[in-house]
Design a protein that fits this description.
9 strands, alpha+beta, OB fold (Dihydrolipoamide Acetyltransferase, E2P), two-stranded antiparallel ribbon
């Protein structure tokens, strides 16, 4: 076994760092295993690069909605017009929800109205239609963003759609037998 400072065949002195038990003659140096260190450097750069890319991607994705719950104490009634509608995945495993952008007739304010999963509706809702709804104003309103209302009841074209019961429990959940929106 070589000493740490013993000259090698070419006459150069190399510092050898032992890994593990020096009695088993297992050693490693940068000069002895350059490929190992090259792989280690490439791996660390790759990991660092992928972290940077995922950070950029996270910044570009829309902000996820904070969890919110129906609060009967914050129920409001809104009359207005549908300015826009969209479908968004709001809850994991619940499908795409119909989200209405409603202009309040009284204040002129645009409100985001979370209704129900798209499959739940028996009727079509279109831009420009007049609506009347009862829903819960969510508590964590952020300045500069639209107010979010969770609809319990929606009246469109003289038809009332019950989306939630009076306590705010969804009519589409398993407790209700996955019935489609009841139209009165």
């Amino acid at each position: 076994m070589k000493n740490k400072n013993q000259q090698n065949e070419k006459g150069n002195n190399k510092k050898v760092r032992f890994l593990g038990d020096p009695e088993k003659n297992i050693f490693c140096s940068i000069a002895a295993y350059p490929a190992f260190f090259l792989v280690l450097i490439i791996f660390s750069l790759t990991v660092q690069g992928s972290l940077s890319v995922s950070t950029i991607q996270d910044q570009q994705q829309p902000e996820k909605l904070k969890p919110h719950f129906y609060n009967v104490d914050r129920e409001i009634t809104i009359e207005g017009q549908v300015e826009d509608l969209k479908f968004e995945s709001r809850y994991e495993g619940k499908g795409h929800f119909l989200i209405l952008i409603v202009k309040d007739k009284t204040s002129g304010e645009l409100l985001e109205v979370e209704t129900a999963p798209a499959w739940f509706f028996k009727i079509d809702i279109h831009k420009g239609e007049k609506v009347r709804l009862i829903g819960s104003l969510t508590e964590d309103q952020e300045p500069g963003k639209r107010k979010l209302v969770m609809a319990r009841e929606l009246k469109v074209n003289n038809q009332t759609i019950t989306l939630r019961d009076r306590r705010g429990f969804p009519a589409w959940s398993s407790g209700q037998g996955r019935k489609r929106g009841s139209v009165d």
